[in-house]
Design a protein that fits this description.
There is one protein chain. The chain is mainly beta. Helix content is 14%, strand content 37%. Strands 1-9-5-4 form a four-stranded antiparallel β-sheet, with no helix packed on it. It has a four-stranded mixed β-sheet with strand order 3-15-14-10. It is globular and about 60 Å long.
Length: 243
């Protein structure tokens, strides 16, 4: 007998990707997660309309796996199986269940660093009573409800995932020009991964809607963690260290 599906809080991310999507607006994704954390999750596609290919054919974008759908191979699979799935549907995904959701507005003396162990280390003092919060985690979320104007109003949280942190820390160490480009179509912040995380460029593909026509004024690497860093520098009473 099949076990009933459970709804659990979690964060997931594609393992091989050059574009990421860490700005959360939807309450849930569907997939199979074998443990509390790992790199063996399978997640169902989240396809959204994404304009057209250069040949004029309609295309869609998979938010879960970060790739386009709509080429001949995709259409052939749809005709054969009746299922609309992107080419990376079967790829393993990284994930963490029950992640820490950190509210920066209710804490002070906060510090977030990446340890030699590859884990995130968060320390902060709660405004109410000054209790110490100390967490070590593979991934965590920043609550955006208390950060008005920092990101698009629809964004609930920013998920700080291992690929996003690795790309960001590498860009900081190599003194790559950093910024945060918002999609011209949907307003979501863009995340560069892989080779795009160390090669400044002006054209940015959106991980939320697949729009590929947003250009920054100057060549840079885009990462939403940079905007959070700028916020941390503006609020030293709240933040002591941000990577």
């Amino acid at each position: 007998m099949a076990m009933p599906a459970l709804t659990l809080p979690g964060i997931s991310w594609p393992l091989p990707a050059t574009v990421g999507h860490i700005a959360v607006t939807t309450p849930a994704i569907t997939g199979h997660f074998q443990a509390g954390a790992g790199t063996d999750a399978t997640v169902e596609c989240q396809l959204v309309e994404a304009g057209k290919f250069r040949n004029g054919a309609a295309r869609q974008w998979c938010r879960a796996h970060q790739c386009y759908w709509g080429v001949k191979a995709d259409l052939a699979q749809l005709a054969a199986t009746g299922r609309r799935q992107c080419k990376l549907q079967g790829e393993a995904m990284g994930y963490v269940l029950y992640p820490e959701v950190f509210d920066p507005a209710s804490h002070h003396a906060s510090s977030l660093t990446l340890g030699e162990d590859g884990l995130l280390h968060l320390q902060a003092r709660a405004d109410a009573g000054g209790a110490l919060l100390a967490r070590t985690a593979r991934a965590l979320a920043i609550d955006c409800a208390s950060l008005p104007g920092l990101f698009h109003p629809s964004i609930l949280q920013i998920n700080i995932t291992p690929p996003a942190v690795a790309a960001y820390v590498r860009a900081l160490r190599e003194a790559v020009p950093l910024g945060c480009s918002d999609c011209r179509r949907c307003g979501h912040p863009h995340l560069d991964l892989g080779e795009f995380a160390v090669e400044p460029h002006r054209r940015h593909y959106c991980g939320n809607c697949g729009h590929d026509g947003t250009h920054s004024r100057q060549a840079m690497v885009s990462n939403p963690l940079q905007r959070l860093r700028e916020y941390a520098l503006r609020t030293p009473q709240r933040w002591r260290q941000w990577f």
